[in-house]
Specification:
The chain has 204 residues and is an all-alpha fold. It folds into two domains: 68 residues, no CATH class; 114 residues, Cytochrome c-like domain (Cytochrome Bc1 Complex, Chain D, domain 2). The protein contains nine helices and no strands. Helix 3 crosses helix 8, helix 5 crosses helix 9 and helix 8 crosses helix 9. Pfam families: Cytochrome_CBB3 (PF13442).
């Protein structure tokens, strides 16, 4: 009987000791023992983050090019042009409507000397095959995979339509009939590239 009582006391004392040691870890949001601090606290600097972490008081390195020594992101260089304002002369194309866009026959990528026509068509082809060919077909004949499988109908052949590069850009940007806007998938420059490739297919 004394033997069982002795074992019970030993187990009970071990449990008390375990609970005591467990309660010593006051802050549960931080690791109790860090064996590899570099794995927990990265040396890398993230944009818009404080470069001085709370646990690196011994490494308070002053880096003058940080904005107020609190962020690793710098302000744009003076004179930097926003990509949203690249083609500022066409900003109001939505308010002027589709009929106005039909008068645009020159790709602003060329007028701004941004890139050559051959490069635009090459990039436009790649973007077209990813975003457009499944409905409009690889050749712009309206025979994409969705049309062939009767998942969608009424896709026109580019050659049968009165298109200009401006009207194509307008439809890609704002949508028309069953086609939704692709402005969230393609930025402004890429929409002009796709528009150029559509005109290339139409005149091919």
């Amino acid at each position: 009987m004394n033997k069982y009582l002795y074992e019970f006391i030993i187990i009970f004392l071990n449990m008390i000791l375990f609970l005591f040691l467990e309660s010593c870890w006051v802050d549960k949001t931080k690791p109790n023992v860090v064996y590899m601090p570099d794995m927990y606290y990265s040396e890398a600097y993230e944009p818009y983050s404080d470069p001085y972490s709370y646990n690196k008081k011994d490494k308070n390195i002053k880096i003058p090019f940080f904005s107020k020594e609190k962020t690793s992101s710098l302000y744009p260089v003076e004179g930097t042009v926003s990509r949203n304002d690249l083609f500022y002369n066409l900003i109001n194309i939505k308010n002027k409507g589709l009929n106005y866009s039909k008068n645009i026959i020159q790709n602003p990528l060329y007028s701004s000397h941004y890139e050559k026509k051959e490069i635009t068509i090459k990039k436009g082809k790649k973007l077209y095959q990813i975003n457009c060919s499944i409905c409009h077909g690889k050749n712009g004949d309206g025979q994409g995979e969705l049309v062939k499988n009767e998942k969608i109908f009424g896709i026109p052949n580019y050659k049968d339509r009165d298109l200009t590069i401006g009207s194509v850009y307008y439809v890609i940007t704002y949508g028309k009939n069953n086609m939704n806007s692709y402005a969230s998938q393609l930025n402004e420059k890429d929409r002009w590239r796709v528009s150029e490739y559509v005109m290339f297919l139409k005149n091919k």
